[in-house]
Amino acid sequence: MKLTRKARWFWLMLLPAAAMMKILGVILPAVMVLWSSIGIAEEARTVRVLVWDEQQPEQAEAYPTFLGNAIADYLNSCQNIRAISVHLDMPGQGLDPATLDATDVIVWWSHRRHGDVKEDRVDDVVQRVLDGRLGLIALHSSHFAQPFMRLMHERAKADARNQVPEAERAEAVFDFSMPLKRAKVKRDAKLTPALENAGAVWKLTPPACVFPAWRADGEPSHVRTLLSEHPIAKGLPAQWDIPKTEMYDEPFHVPAPDAVVFEERWDKGERFRSGCTWNVGKGRVFYFRPGHETYPVYRQPENLTVIENAARWAAPRP
Ligand SMILES: [Zn+2]
């Protein structure tokens, strides 16, 4: 068939158009499937936070409807975070298995009633963190919270194995039986956790999870971001002041953190590692020091951003 010049042009234009339509017919649905699966993944990445609050009456000075509710309200204003606030006197102490099943990260506040949390609830929280099903953020006085102390102990046990000289490791026998206790430490106390070779056995003194000095006088502190590239430092300035806070002074008796993201200093010369991370088992733990229930520390944007970032960081990985 002999085509006229005009018809040749027509076919030359049409063929690529047809090919293009065919390619688009394959590509477009694929792009749409990919797009929707990204959407599903985005949805799945919503971090479910449980703010656990002892709810001391003293909180009313700075938080009319309790500190935990103030933190949950802020987190609910953040994209892809859904927070609920629970407290110690709820059924199941706010930590029943169904609630924990629907939780990625717990933000924990306790101060006076650490010992009132039932052992089986503590066991459940600790096991879920070890299994990588839950992250824990401990705030301020929660250095004495049972889940935090237990997880620091677990980390100290894991570290102990690495502290034994390599040649002895295979045969090493450990004694991890020394119990955890909430007790003060003196400034010159032996740093804990501590591992000692007692005869044929390596004996672990658990982390005391405390520090020798504190002062709840409402003086300002100066926070410095030490690791600006860390996800928990995202969007935060190199330094900021907290106008009214309590002072804690080093040494903090905890296993060496994987990262010290923030440090805090006071005008009288004290210093603290105020934002520390640990991997424990398959889970993640973050400790954030600023606080005290009678000062509005968790109303300050920088401190709330730290909690928000930490919640995203501590959430279990898919
Ligand atoms: Zn305090």
Q: How would you describe what is shown here?
A:
With 318 residues, the chain is α/β, with parallel strands linked by helices. It has two domains: 207 residues, Class I glutamine amidotransferase (GATase) domain (Rossmann fold); 52 residues, no CATH class. Helix content is 32%, strand content 27%. It contains seven helices and twelve strands. The strands form two sheets. The chain has a nine-stranded mixed β-sheet with strand order 2-1-3-4-12-11-10-8-9. The site of zinc ion (ZN) has 6 residues, from loops.
The CATH superfamily of the largest domain bears the name Class I glutamine amidotransferase (GATase) domain
Order of helices and strands: HEHEHEHEHHEEEEEEEEH
Percent of residues in β-strands: 25-35%
DSSP, total strands: 12
Present the secondary structure layout.
Blueprint: H1 5-44, E1 47-53, H2 67-76, E2 81-87, H3 97-101, E3 105-109, H4 119-130, E4 135-139, H5 146-163, H6 166-169, E5 173-175, E6 194-198, E7 201-205, E8 213-225, E9 239-249, E10 259-266, E11 271-280, E12 283-288, H7 301-314
Parallel strand pairs: 1-2, 1-3, 3-4, 4-12, 5-7
Antiparallel strand pairs: 6-7, 8-9, 8-10, 10-11, 11-12
The structure holds zinc ion.
The site of zinc ion has 6 residues, from loops.
Name some characteristics of this structure.
alpha/beta, 2 domains, 3-stranded mixed beta sheet, 12 strands, binds zinc ion
Short description:
With 318 residues, the protein is an alpha/beta fold.
